[in-house]
């Protein structure tokens, strides 16, 4: 398959610029009904409501270090794990008091370069009512959880164009346009759609999925794309690696098989299966131009950007 048409880093922000609009972030599940679990590594009983909180703290801390944001990692909210937890807890409890809702919630935590932490709390709306948070195996034939049968309804397609490896694919940053365009090209309209899209680099290696981590069965074992491929080290992927559910590996575009079952995971919905689907018109390749230097990740807010879906030749 030709690697022509690779997405270039056309945005105007420098990767190391200390711009007020730049931030790193992570999204997590908060469920007041959650029971304490020894599999929730690094979490105390006080933190039982939040899924993999230690991994989220590490993710923010490491991402800030990658960008040289030393003020951020020394800020009051990031000094210790418990400091960040209390910052998040205040926002969740405020929403519960205002709305009377007990969750579950999707919590987005943003860390800016100067150390300010912003927390957004939203209801978690999902068709997965009982998520598989701590699987003991990826083996499909013996898996006891209904999540292993999500492949009957959840589909995965391949992006239309390669995506360049860069700081914004290694860490979860404010710059999400490569993921937004991949989802647009795959006709994914909502985060509730039972559909995901795989991104790949210029070497034809799978990097990541747009809002989840993918896992593939290769050579008798489950693998997730290696860090060198350019994708993110998400909370659930680190957890799966730490629990020997998978290994790092190189998964090429050419190795994808129509109707194969893969696992997906993210720290809001947990782990679930999906079915890879291929076709001659698998995606639309968005044709766009931009003179915008905005760092927001919204089609409507990206000033000067025209998005016209164009069929891949």
Reading the helices and strands in chain order gives EHHHEEEHHEEEEHEEEEE
Query: Could you give the distance between the termini?
Result: 12 Å
CATH class placement of the largest domain: Alpha Beta
Mean pLDDT: 83
Protein topology:
Layout: E1 23-30, H1 53-66, H2 70-73, H3 81-99, E2 105-112, E3 117-123, E4 155-158, H4 167-170, H5 177-185, E5 195-200, E6 206-209, E7 213-218, E8 221-225, H6 235-242, E9 247-249, E10 261-266, E11 270-276, E12 284-289, E13 306-311
Parallel strand pairs: 4-5, 4-11, 8-9
Antiparallel strand pairs: 1-2, 2-3, 5-6, 7-8, 7-10, 10-11, 12-13
Task: Summarize, please.
With 313 residues, this protein is of the alpha+beta class.
What does this structure look like?
Helix content is 19%, strand content 24%. By secondary structure, it is of the alpha+beta class. The protein folds into two domains: 23-123, D-amino Acid Aminotransferase, Chain A, domain 1, CATH 3.30.470; 146-289, D-amino Acid Aminotransferase, Chain A, domain 2. Strands 6-5-4-11-10-7-8-9 form an eight-stranded mixed sheet, with helices on one face. A three-stranded antiparallel sheet has the order 1-2-3, covered by helices on one side. Strand 2 (105-112) and strand 3 form a beta hairpin. The longest helix has 19 residues, at 81-99. The chain is globular and about 50 Å long. Mean pLDDT is 83; it is low at 1-6, 8-18 and 285-313.
């Amino acid at each position: 398959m030709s690697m022509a048409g690779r997405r270039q880093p056309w945005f105007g922000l420098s990767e190391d610029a200390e711009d007020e609009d730049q931030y790193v972030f992570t999204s997590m599940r908060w469920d007041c009904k959650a029971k304490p679990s020894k599999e929730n590594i690094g979490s105390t009983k006080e933190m039982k409501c939040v899924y993999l909180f230690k991994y989220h703290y590490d993710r923010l801390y490491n991402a800030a270090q990658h960008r040289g944001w030393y003020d951020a990692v020394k800020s009051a909210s990031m000094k210790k794990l418990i400091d960040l937890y209390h910052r998040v807890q205040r926002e969740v409890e405020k929403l519960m008091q205002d709305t009377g809702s007990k969750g579950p919630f999707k919590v987005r935590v943003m860390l800016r370069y100067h150390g300010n932490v912003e927390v957004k709390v939203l209801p978690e709306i999902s068709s997965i009512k009982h998520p598989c948070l701590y699987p003991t195996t990826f083996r499909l034939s013996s898996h006891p959880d209904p999540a292993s049968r999500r492949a009957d309804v959840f589909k995965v397609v391949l992006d239309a164009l390669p995506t360049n490896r860069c700081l914004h694919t290694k860490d979860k940053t404010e710059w999400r346009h490569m993921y937004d365009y991949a989802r647009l090209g795959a006709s994914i309209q909502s985060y509730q759609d039972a559909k995901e899209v795989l991104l790949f680099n210029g070497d034809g290696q799978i990097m990541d999925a747009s809002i989840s981590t993918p896992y593939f069965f290769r050579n008798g074992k489950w693998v997730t794309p290696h860090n060198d491929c350019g994708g993110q080290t998400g909370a659930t992927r680190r957890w799966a690696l730490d629990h020997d559910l998978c290994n790092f590996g190189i998964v090429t575009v050419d190795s994808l098989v129509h109707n194969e079952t893969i696992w997906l995971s993210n720290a809001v919905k947990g782990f679930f299966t999906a079915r890879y689907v291929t076709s001659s018109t698998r995606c639309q390749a968005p044709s766009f131009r931009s003179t915008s230097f905005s760092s927001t990740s919204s089609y409507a807010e990206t000033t000067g950007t025209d998005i016209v879906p164009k069929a891949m030749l």
